[in-house]
Design brief:
Layout (H helix, E strand, L loop, with lengths): L1 E5 L10 E5 L9 E11 L1 H8 L15 E8 L11 E4 L2 E3 L5 H4 L10 E2 L11 E5 L3 E3 L6 H4 L5 H11 L9 E5 L3 H12 L3 E5 L3 H10 L4 E3 L9 E6 L7 H6 L1 E9 L20 E4 L5 H13 L6 E5 L3 H9 L6 E5 L1
Parallel strand pairs: 10-11, 10-13, 11-12, 13-14, 14-15, 16-17
Antiparallel strand pairs: 1-2, 3-4, 3-8, 3-17, 4-5, 5-9, 6-7
Helix pairs in contact: 4-5, 4-8
The structure holds zinc ion (2 copies).
Length: 334
């Protein structure tokens, strides 16, 4: 099969993904083989390709927002059938036995595996994944539209939950960085009745999309929203946004950091945190997050804005992502 393989992590501008022929994988007893139709490109893929995250297996195939069709089943799989359309997300497998798994926090599993990092992902014609961790996808989203739901959407949804906001009607939510996750989160938050304030650079693409999607206020990443916010989510991997984002929060507000990697956070005065403001991160997702989000996305119905790339152009998609040149989400069509 054709795949984009990371020979060794390097700055994406030197095109570290190699488009080559490799052996197609075989499913283990509890796995399915999926013919990939579309795979979203996430900032985490960029962090893996550039070595911001440590290398976990050599010559990994990235990609963890996979939409495809089940092509073969392992001998113990009964939950899906050949021909089913499925989605595969970041969380590949958990142990089911550690203290986190037993406490319904499988996102923090001690032995978690991740698609496109600790195992090969979807920048390829075929991928294998444990059957218990694939999602059935709602109708109404074609393959291209569905792909960004699987990480940008699911992690965005978990980030929204971790804001702790319970009464969404009129709640003021901030979003810092308006890429794939931001453009999904604003739609969920607005459907729930929130007012959304967006701080993002790139007037032409990101600010324009935020306005199109009904942001109450849109500003540059250095601007301060005109009102105090109940909670904010930082999707940009930029630690320097944390102090101004804290400053924009109301008393008791929650600042959720939605990324897997962030540049160092500068020191700041305690007064920014005092009055019971909270900073917390988001790590991975549970399968329940995924199922709940996909159901809510279908009900809204949410619409993703996507830019299409060919599999062999995965480096170009990552370069565009790095340079803020994607409006919405980048998706490889395979
Ligand atoms: Zn576990
Ligand atoms: Zn991701």
């Amino acid at each position: 099969m054709k795949a984009c393989v990371l020979s060794s992590p390097a700055a994406v501008d030197v095109r570290p993904l190699k488009y080559i022929e490799v052996d197609a994988p075989n499913p283990n007893d509890d796995e399915v083989l999926v013919r990939v139709h579309a795979c979203g490109v996430c900032r985490t893929d960029l962090h893996i390709v550039e070595g911001d995250l440590p290398e976990r297996i050599p010559a990994v195939i990235p990609g963890h927002q996979i939409v495809g069709e089940v092509a073969a089943l392992g001998s113990n799989v009964a939950s899906v059938a050949v021909g089913d359309r499925v989605g595969i997300a970041w969380l590949r497998r958990t142990c089911g036995a550690c203290r986190f798994c037993r406490a319904s926090k499988e996102n923090l599993c001690e032995r978690a595996e991740f698609n496109g990092w600790t195992a090969n992902g979807g920048f390829a014609e075929y991928v294998v994944a444990p059957a218990d961790f694939v999602y059935s996808l709602p109708e109404g989203f074609d393959d291209l539209q569905a792909a960004p739901l699987l990480c940008a959407g699911i992690i965005g949804y978990r980030s929204l939950r971790l804001t702790g906001i319970e009464n969404w009607k009129g709640a003021r939510l901030g979003i810092y960085g308006f890429g794939a996750a931001g453009h999904v989160v604003i739609q969920v938050a607005r459907a729930r009745g929130a007012e959304v304030y967006v701080c993002t650079r790139d007037r032409e693409r990101h600010q324009a999309l935020a306005t199109e999607l009904g942001a109450k206020w849109v500003g540059d990443s250095s601007e301060t929203p005109p009102v105090k916010l109940y909670a904010s989510i930082v999707f940009a991997p930029a630690g320097e946004l944390v102090p101004p984002a804290l400053e924009a929060l109301d008393k008791g507000g929650v600042l959720v950091l939605g990324g897997i990697h962030m540049s160092p956070i500068p020191s700041f005065d305690y007064s920014l945190l005092y009055q019971e403001r909270v900073i917390r991160s988001v790590a991975n997702n549970t399968r329940a997050d995924g199922r709940e989000f996909l159901a809510e996305a279908a009900k809204i119905p949410l619409r993703t804005h996507v830019e299409k790339f060919r599999l062999e152009d995965a480096n170009d998609a990552l370069i565009a992502l790095k340079h803020d040149a994607i409006k919405g989400a980048a998706v490889l069509m395979i």
